[in-house]
Amino acid sequence: MTIEGTQEYSINMGPQHPSTHGVFRMVVHLDGEVVTKVEPKIGYLHRGLEKIAESRTYAQFVPYTDRLDYLAGPHNSLGYVQAVEKLMEIELPERAEYLRVIFAELGRIASHLVMIASGSLDICGWTPWSYCFRDRERILDLFEMTAGNRMTPNYFRIGGISHDVPEEFMPALKSLLDDMPELLEEYYGIFFGNEIVQSRMKSVGILPKELAENLLITGANLRASGVQYDVRKAEPYSIYDRFEFNIPVLYGCDTYDRHLIRLFEIQESSKILRQALRDIPDGPVMAKVPKVIKPPANKIYHRVENPKGEMGWYIVSNGTTKPARVRIRTGAFVNVQMLPAIIAGWKIQDLVTIFASMDLVLGEVDK
Amino acid sequence: MVSNILRARVGELAVRVNGAVEESLGELQLTVNYTDAIEVLTGAKNFEDVPCDFLHDLCGMDLEDHLEVVYQLSSLHGPQRLRIIARVERENPVIDSATCIWKGSDFLEREAFDMFGIQFRDHPNLKRIYLWDDFEGYPMRKDYVVESYEQRAIMRVRKEGE
Amino acid sequence: MDALNNVFVNIADAIRGLFADSHSFGADLTINIIVFIMLFLIMVVAALFLSLVERKFAHWVSQRPGPNRLGPHGWFQFIADAVKMLGKEDITSANADKFLFKIAPMILVGITLMTFGVLPFGKRMVAINLDLGIFYFLAVSSVSTVALLMAGWASNNKYSLLGGLRAVAQMISYEIPLIFSLLGVVMITQTFNLSSIIEAQKTVPFIVLQPLAFVIYLISGIAETNRAPFDQVQGEQEIVAGPFTEYSGLRWGLFMLAEYGNVVATSAIAVSMFLGGWNGPEFLPGWLWFILKMWVIIFTMMWIRWTFVRMRIDHLMHFAWKILLPLSLANIFLTGIGIYIYQLLILRIGG
User: Fold this and answer.
1) In sequence order, which ranges of A67-224 are alpha helices (DSSP H)?
2) Residue B153 neighbours by CB distance under 10 Å
3) Is A197's CB within 8 Å of C309's CB?
């Protein structure tokens, strides 16, 4: 009996794999080297945070929020504490707002550095990876000097922040910002200017604009497909309306643009940081908050621009100290749907590159 | 801040589907029955001047006597926002799937099914997403009994001579 | 300087003198066994040492300190690595094809050792002075493709199979530019014997006469040894070490030995054919010049590895078939024309 033709086979890029960014499993159906279908299977890091939130008080839930997108430490708490403050209608002192913006933008830079670094690591470029991590260490040192913890500082509180920054913080931040343009040039030259990188990433993994809007993609992936939308400009929260910054947009829709746009976003974040550093006033860092936080029975949906996408917090309170429902809409969870939609026809090596460009972190995907 | 045009359009839509409109903390909310969910979503997507064409979030909610599916709509072309709450029965929670309007609601609906047990009609692949396929029960419902510490502790006791 | 130049030859002669007839079968056998052991030791030491040098170099490029705990500045790290590797459990997958699984690393090491046999480390310091030198080298090193395919198939693992097939595709494609680039040198010297080729470079190394061939040879050599940017055989981020996935402990150590042995062999051939072998100014012995030049090539190969990212498989094949092959053919053509013109001129001028 002769068997004619070739056969499709399926490979399991399982939860433990050198290049999936965390415990992510996908069943990849292949025809030779060409991918025909990908089925993502998530849930390996599911910790049931939404259920936990229903049995914790509002203030007790804040440390859990840091563990969502653990690469952008303090940024996740921002959405939650702001949502609760909206429910309770608390006004924050100015210094607290500025410090929150500083920490949030530092978290954004840290997260984007990891994204560029791991995108380069996935195609065996060890040098850009170590350069990005060397600079991420400086940001983590800033977190450690303030709050004691590097990746999950647990620094924000409902009504402000926990304590004021130490004296070494501002000079260290200033020196980091002074070095930033040179570092960005370095990253551009060593990674984005490399011909082989360009040949592997340009025109690979095209995500057209209409498909991106239909798939509900948010964040930098959407901006790399030509939609200029950022929650910080569309619906400014905190004091973002006081800062002058641009929203970078690229129209290539491919993997290269998705990586490049994060480099531009680091640049914009450092602009915001410089302005915040210049304008920050002195004063208290915590508002007058009642000892027991009991918001009136109401519902609120608050959105923030997380480095990975848009994070939405839907908090329903029923007048007691514990919330009735805390719903966390994470950008990475919805962005996973991009992978099965655009992967057909690319090779395994492109699968790795496209996956890296989606910038997932499993803490957010699995909650 | 809710613009007057948006208030007007939502009011018209509410009259059409017999829903209730509320406004608090600067957000509009429209409560409908589950049978009209798709009609309301398409209607909101096609509002004139203020289309709410981006489904930001889809989640389930457990109130004592009924379940709810909460849709948070926003837009990429303007500041309009709308929350749509669809009441679903508790005994037999069925609602039409929104994947015909937005493909991206696929995973969100799978999560609502996984956590609350809400069946979405015409969903391409309604399976559990976070928990394993043979899991029994729907964790986010209020009547789900979480394993107590005593029960967990029992499994950890070592037998003698092990 | 002559004494230093010939120190190894003199030792060999002394050992031969211990026998009654210094060219008897017994003497030859003894010398051959000693040379074989020395080559094996060179390969092992090179592999261990090179792996450490590679790590140190990589970390220097990436601005990291590199291994710096064991020994002075971490130079004893390879001892720890070797001991660790020897002490690992020998796991063979249950459904693997046991015979092929076990034999694949042995074949790879054997082939590398065989190619070491024709490398001229100095004047009259060749293990086997074959007249077919370079031809033998290319023929034997092509067999390593089969060994990788064996490793890929016998592991009973889809990742390994993918890696093995990629290895076949890549190595076969890059054999051809490799061979054609060396053909130019052979056309000039009219011989395959490596020692004669080095003797012919007394006045000017062939890199001056064949720069294009040198570049093509270097690129193809990197591709043949499966190093970055051509290392998608051991994808490591996609197919998790390709054919080497299921190997652990000493079997994996044998693969690494073969890989670094191949690096040494490739750079030795590059030095012999293009850079003048053991020729060099008199203040250093010949074999030391050979080693230094080899180091330059190895350094270049490492530098390329840690700067460039991996190429995609279809770009790789496109590069081999559509760019390197026509270039190497053009090189042969130009070399032929050059030789013809040179002979015409010599006949004219020489009278």
Assistant:
1) 75-88, 94-121, 126-147, 169-187, 195-201, 209-214, 220-223
2) 9
3) yes
For residue A28, the cross-strand partners are A11, A38
* Residue A351: both structure tokens together: 């699968």
Neighbours of A322 (CB within 10 A): 16
pLDDT of residue A117 exceeding 60, the answer is: yes
CA distances from B4 to A175, A234, B49 (A): 48, 18, 11
**Contact indicator for A92, A287 with CB cutoff of 8 Å:** yes
Encoding tokens for residue C305? 């590895």
**How far from the centroid of its chain's Cα atoms is residue A32's Cα?**
34
Query: B162: how many CB neighbours lie within 10 A of its CB?
Result: 4
Residue in chain C lying closest to A20 (CA) = C237
Please report, for residues A277, B11, B149, the alpha-carbon distance to residue B23 in angstroms, rounded to integers and kept in the order given.
Answer: 38, 11, 42
pLDDT band at C325 (very low <50, low <70, confident <90, very high): very high
- Which residues in chain C have their CB less than 8 angstroms from residue A14's CB? none
Chains in contact with C, where contact requires at least 3 CB pairs less than 8 Å apart: A
Q: Would you state the pLDDT for residue A20?
A: 62
Q: Do C238 and A19 touch (CB under 8 A)?
A: yes
Which pLDDT band, with edges at 50, 70 and 90, does A266 fall under?
very high
Six-digit token pair at A293? 């936080």
Q: With cut-offs at 50, 70 and 90, classify the pLDDT of residue C76.
A: confident
Q: Return all residues near B158 (Cβ < 8 A) that are at least 6 apart.
A: none
3-class SS at C228?
coil
- Which residue has 């979030």 as its token pair? B57
Q: What percent of chain C has pLDDT over 90?
A: 11
Strand extents, DSSP E, chain C? none
Strand pairing class (B27-33; B82-88): parallel
**Most distant CA pair in chain B, distance:** 76
Q: Which residues of chain B make contact with A336, given a CB cutoff of 8 A? A: 107
Q: Give the gap in angstroms from C-alpha A357 to the nearest C-alpha of chain C.
A: 15
Q: Which of C197, C111, C101 is nearest to C156 (CA)?
A: C101
Q: Tell me which residue in A126, A131, A348 faces C238 most closely, judged by beta carbons.
A: A348
B140 contacts on A by Cβ (under 8 Å): 50-51
A30 sits in the region (left: phi over 0; alpha: psi -120 to 50; else beta) called beta
Confidence of residue C25 (pLDDT cuts 50, 70, 90): confident
Express each pLDDT in A34-52 by its tens digit.
Answer: 889 899 888 888 888 888 8
Interface test with A, best of B129, B132, B147 (most A CBs within 10 A): B129
Buried/exposed A82-109: b ≥16 CB within 10 Å, e otherwise: bbbbbbbebebbebbbbbbbbbbbbbbb
Cis peptide before C229 (omega within 30 of 0): yes
C-alpha C232/C-alpha C44 separation (Å) is 25
Q: How far apart are CA C288 and CA C181, in angstroms?
A: 26
CB contact under 8 A, C58 and A126: yes
Contact yes or no, A with C (3+ CB pairs under 8 Å): yes
Q: How many CB pairs under 8 A join A and B?
A: 88
**Residue pair A40/A334 in contact by the 8 Å Cβ criterion:** no
The per-residue pLDDT for range C253-288, each reduced to its tens digit, is: 888 888 888 889 999 999 988 888 888 787 888 788
Residue A56 in tokens? 């914790």
The DSSP 8-state label assigned to residue A281 in this structure reads: P
Residue A173 to residue A176: CA distance in whole angstroms: 5
Rounded to whole angstroms, how far apart are CA atoms A246 and A272? 10
The stretch B124-137 carries a mean pLDDT of 85
> Which of B33, B18, B143, B30 minimizes the C-alpha distance to B88?
B33
